[in-house]
């Protein structure tokens, strides 16, 4: 088992629903530590840059518009196999397909407004953490 870090975003729909604390509880319950966090409202350029890998996809414009529609809560999670553990907690991209008890099954309304983002691999986690926390002060304990 390896200690990893992953990037988590609580998206505008979940922030608007006032469930940041409930989602944080799930991270903590699974043994993931929040080692950096900040709330922000993304600019269009920030959202486009973050999702650049999806730039050619038909849903790109909707995705960017959704991500800038309200404040987001961005955090770095640390723990054993954090990347996969976090993806398991999130559930499938489409909440209709997400397993019962996952964050998306419980808090997401649609494939667009799907409550959370999580890095999908070690390489993307490193890039995504640096994107939002270029000078990361880590508070491991
Ligand atoms: P995320 O990156 O947000 O953690 O989500 P994911 O890995 O589960 O899904 P990904 O394939 O990376 O897609 C990024 C976000 O784009 C939206 N999407 N819409 N309409 C569609 O077919 C579609 N497919 C993806 C979702 O909001 C997804 O979270
Ligand atoms: Mg993704």
From TrEMBL:
Principal subcellular localization: cytoplasm
Residues the entry annotates as binding ATP: 11, 59, 87, 93, 104, 114
Keywords: ATP-binding, Cytoplasm, Kinase, Magnesium, Metal-binding, Nucleotide metabolism, Nucleotide-binding, Phosphoprotein, Transferase
Pfam families noted in UniProt: NDK
Active site residues of this protein: 117
Membrane-spanning segments: none
UniProt keyword NADP present: no
InterPro entries: NDK-like_dom (IPR034907), NDK-like_dom_sf (IPR036850), Nucleoside_diP_kinase (IPR001564)
Domain (Nucleoside diphosphate kinase-like): residue spans on this chain: 3-140
Catalytically driven reaction(s): a 2'-deoxyribonucleoside 5'-diphosphate + ATP = a 2'-deoxyribonucleoside 5'-triphosphate + ADP; a ribonucleoside 5'-diphosphate + ATP = a ribonucleoside 5'-triphosphate + ADP
Compartment annotation: Cytoplasm
Signal peptide boundaries: none
Cofactor: Mg(2+)
Summary of subunit composition and partner proteins: Homotetramer.
Job of this protein: Major role in the synthesis of nucleoside triphosphates other than ATP. The ATP gamma phosphate is transferred to the NDP beta phosphate via a ping-pong mechanism, using a phosphorylated active-site intermediate.
Name of this protein: Nucleoside diphosphate kinase
Source species of the chain: Massilia aerilata
Lineage: Bacteria, Pseudomonadati, Pseudomonadota, Betaproteobacteria, Burkholderiales
